[in-house]
Amino acid sequence: KSCQKPVDKYIEYDPVIILINAILCKAQAYRHILFNTKINIHGKLCIFCLLCEAYLRWLQLQDSSQNIDPDDLIRYAREWDFYRMFGIASLEQTSFLVGIFIALWQMRPEMLKTKSDFSLLLKALLLSSYGKLLLIPAVIWEHDYTPLCLMLIKVFVLTSNSQAIRVTLNLNRMRPWLAIFIGLVLENGAICLFRKMGWNV
After folding, report:
1. Which of 32, 34, 37, 142 is spaced 20 to 30 Å from 127 by Cα?
2. Global pTM value
3. Which InterPro entries match (predicted)?
């Protein structure tokens, strides 16, 4: 009321500019998307990102077994491999999110005291994982730098996750990264467990 200006400047901005600022990981853009818009695509986005990740793993699995057999049984087995990769990617994502929630709850239990706090943080983490959509172009335009591209995509997604946690819970820069580190430890623990069980991850 005192300055006669909107508190959230992004209300007046074009959605393309908001998206560009979100890609640049600006905290105010994240705040606008999470609190002042009614975006409700986090579930669909999560499924689509998991499908992208499963496809990438499935493609790498196909490359490792080059012998092509026209038999239908082999084709169905390969399709089953895709579903298995989707399940593994889902379990890894779940363990990553559980690690983040446990870490944040251990740091400050008062931050996540209600169900709405949990759901808002989950929504923020799922929306901020949109960088995983870049996996598909990285696979389609395969070149010598594909491993580097995949690593940069991972760093971008983790940076987005950190910014989403920071904005949602109003934290300093260090705590979100610590929570993400614990989430990664739990995710890598799940990967090691799958490998010990003999699953190709």
Report:
1. 142
2. 0.81
3. Arv1
> What DSSP string describes 3-58?
S-S-S-GGGGS-HHHHHHHHHTT-HHHHHHHHHSS----HHHHHHHHHHHHHHHHH
Whether the CA torsion 150, 156, 160, 163 is positive or negative: it is positive
| Residue ranges in the chain modelled with pLDDT below 70 | 1-6, 62-78, 142-145, 199-201
Question: Residue 132: how many CA atoms within 13 Å on its side-chain side?
Answer: 23
- Is residue 18 within 8 A of residue 97, CB to CB? The reply is no
Which residues neighbour 96 within 8 Å (Cβ) at sequence distance 6 or greater? 183, 184, 186, 187
- Say if residue 170 is exposed, middle or buried (CB neighbours under 10 Å; 0-12, 13-18, 19+): exposed
Cβ–Cβ < 8 Å for 98, 122:
no
Considering only CA atoms, which of 63, 31, 23 is closest in space to residue 159? 23
Alpha-carbon dihedral angle through residues 189, 128, 24, 102, given to the nearest 10 degrees: -50
Which has the closest alpha carbon to 126: 29, 45, 188, 37?
45
Please state, as a whole number, how many other Cβ atoms lie within 10 Å of the Cβ of residue 131: 19
Burial of 79 (0-12, 13-18, 19+ CB in 10 A): exposed
Place of tokens 């090691």: 192
pLDDT digit string (tens) for 112-132?
Answer: 777 888 888 999 999 999 888
